[in-house]
C-alpha cells in the first residue's frame, strides 16, 4: 500500500512548493535554456514578443509534471526537457488567447500580452506559439509525441471554444463545467504526465496511472484557479480578479453560489452573468464568504485530488510517485492560503 501523503494541515505544507521545485532546479534551468533557443526560430520582428511571453511563464507546473512523472534519478533528460518545452509553449499560447478573451490586463504581476501589444498582434502571437510547439514536437524520432501534443492542443482549443460559446449563458450544469475544464486545463496536465512517464522509460501500466493522475490534478488545479478568482488577493496572485463573473463565465464557485441563494437573489446573479445587469462584485464576494462557498468548492477539489492519488497509489515504490504526490500537497497548501 502507498504511504499516505502529508496532511494538508501540516505546518510544513506551504514549504512543499519550494522544496519540490528546488529539486527541479537543474531541469528548469535546462528548460529555460531550451525555450530561449526557440526564440531565435521566430522572425526577428516578433522575437521580443515571444520573449515577453516566456518571461511571464510562471511556476512551470506542466513542465514539472513532465519531469516528475518521468523521474528515475536526478539526471536531466534531454528528451524530457524538449517535451516540457513543447507543452510549455502550448500553455503560453493558451494564456495569450485567454487574456484576449477575458480582456485581462494583468497576469503574474505584469501586463498581459494583449495589453502590451494589442489584441490583433496578441492573437497572432498565440497562433505562432502554438505552431512552433508542434514544429518542435515533430523533431522527435517518433511521431507519437507530435501526435499526442497535436491532439491535446486541439482538445484545449475545443474547451476554450465551448467555454466562449457559453459565456453569458446560464443553462450550464456541473457536468458542462467539468467537461470544459477537463479539456481546457486538465488536458495539458494529462499529456504532461503521459509523455513524461513514457519518455522516462516506465511501463504501460504506470504510464496509464500517471496519465489519470495528471488529469485529476489538472481538474483540481482549475477549480483552485476558479476559487482564486474570487478568494485570492490580486497583489499576491498577480492577476486580475473577478474576471470570470465580469466575462460571464459560470464557474463552480458561481454555480455553488447560485444554488445557495434565494430565488430572487439567484435571478439577480444570473442577470449579471448574462450581462443584463451591471456586476455587483462587492455583493458577490460578500455572499461567497457568508454562504461558505469556499468549503463547498474545496470539497470538490479534494475529491479530484483523491482520485488522482488512488490511481498511482499501487506504484508507490517507483521514484516518480512520491514526487508526483508532492504536487497534490503543493496545491492543497495553495488552497489553504486562499481560505477566508
Describe it for me?
- The chain is mainly α and 340 residues long.
- It has one domain (15-338): Orthogonal Bundle (Farnesyl Diphosphate Synthase), CATH 1.10.600.10.
- It is built from 17 helices and two strands.
- The chain has helices at 15-23, 25-39, 47-55, 61-69, 78-102, 113-117, 119-137, 143-166, 174-199, 204-231, 234-237, 243-246, 252-260, 263-274, 281-290, 293-312, 320-338, and strands at residues 106-107, 110-111.
- The protein has a two-stranded antiparallel sheet with strand order 1-2.
- Strand 1 (106-107) and strand 2 (110-111) form a beta hairpin.
- Helix 4 (61-69) packs across helix 9 (174-199) and helix 5 runs parallel beside helix 8.
- Residues 1-15 have low confidence and may be disordered.
- Keywords: Magnesium, Metal-binding, Transferase.
- It comes from Synoicihabitans lomoniglobus.
- Pfam families: polyprenyl_synt.
Structure keywords:
globular, two-stranded antiparallel ribbon, mainly alpha, 2 strands, 340 residues, Farnesyl Diphosphate Synthase, 73% helix
| Superfamily (CATH H level) name | Farnesyl Diphosphate Synthase
SSE order in H/E notation? HHHHHEEHHHHHHHHHHHH
CATH class: Mainly Alpha
Shape: globular
- Major sheet summary line: 2 strands, antiparallel
**Strand-pairing-aware structural class:** mainly alpha
Output the strand order for the largest sheet: 1-2
* CATH fold-level topology: Farnesyl Diphosphate Synthase
CATH architecture: Orthogonal Bundle
The number of strands is 2
As a percent range, the share of helical residues equals over 70%
- Outline the low-pLDDT stretches: 1-15
Portion of residues in beta strands equals under 5%
Question: What's the rounded overall pLDDT mean?
Answer: 88
Tell me the number of structural domains: 1
Number of helical stretches of at least 4 residues: 17
Radius of gyration: 20 Å
- Oligomeric state as shown: single chain
Give the terminus-to-terminus CA distance: 35 Å
Amino acid at each position: 500500500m502507498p504511504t499516505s501523503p502529508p496532511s494538508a494541515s501540516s505546518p510544513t505544507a506551504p514549504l512543499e512548493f519550494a522544496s519540490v521545485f528546488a529539486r527541479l532546479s537543474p531541469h528548469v534551468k535546462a528548460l529555460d535554456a531550451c525555450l530561449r533557443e526557440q526564440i531565435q526560430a521566430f522572425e526577428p520582428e516578433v522575437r521580443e514578443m515571444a520573449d515577453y511571453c516566456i518571461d511571464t511563464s510562471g511556476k512551470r507546473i506542466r513542465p514539472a509534471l513532465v519531469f516528475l512523472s518521468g523521474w528515475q534519478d536526478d539526471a536531466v533528460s534531454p528528451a524530457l526537457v524538449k517535451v516540457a518545452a513543447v507543452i510549455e509553449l502550448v500553455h503560453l499560447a493558451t494564456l495569450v488567447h485567454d487574456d484576449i478573451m477575458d480582456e485581462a490586463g494583468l497576469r503574474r504581476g505584469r501586463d498581459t500580452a494583449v495589453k502590451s501589444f494589442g489584441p490583433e498582434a496578441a492573437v497572432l502571437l498565440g497562433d505562432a506559439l502554438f505552431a512552433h510547439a508542434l514544429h518542435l514536437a515533430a523533431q522527435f524520432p517518433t511521431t507519437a509525441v507530435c501526435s499526442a501534443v497535436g491532439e491535446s492542443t486541439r482538445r484545449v482549443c475545443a474547451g476554450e471554444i465551448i467555454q466562449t460559446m457559453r459565456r453569458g449563458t446560464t443553462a450550464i450544469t456541473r457536468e458542462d463545467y467539468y467537461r470544459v475544464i477537463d479539456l481546457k486545463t486538465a488536458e495539458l496536465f494529462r499529456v504532461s504526465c503521459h509523455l513524461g512517464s513514457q519518455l522516462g522509460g516506465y511501463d504501460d501500466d504506470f504510464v496509464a496511472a500517471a496519465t489519470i493522475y495528471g488529469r485529476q490534478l489538472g481538474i483540481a488545479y482549475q477549480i483552485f484557479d476558479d476559487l482564486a478568482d474570487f478568494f485570492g488577493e490580486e497583489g499576491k496572485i498577480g492577476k486580475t480578479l473577478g474576471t470570470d463573473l465580469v466575462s460571464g463565465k459560470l464557474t463552480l464557485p458561481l454555480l455553488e453560489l447560485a444554488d445557495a441563494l434565494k430565488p430572487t437573489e439567484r435571478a439577480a446573479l444570473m442577470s449579471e452573468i448574462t450581462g443584463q445587469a451591471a456586476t455587483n462584485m462587492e455583493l458577490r464576494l460578500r455572499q461567497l464568504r457568508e454562504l461558505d462557498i469556499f468549503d463547498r468548492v474545496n470539497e470538490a477539489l479534494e475529491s479530484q485530488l483523491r482520485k488522482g492519488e488512488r490511481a498511482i497509489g499501487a506504484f508507490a515504490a517507483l521514484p516518480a510517485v512520491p514526487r508526483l504526490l508532492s504536487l497534490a500537497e503543493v496545491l492543497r497548501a495553495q488552497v489553504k492560503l486562499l481560505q477566508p
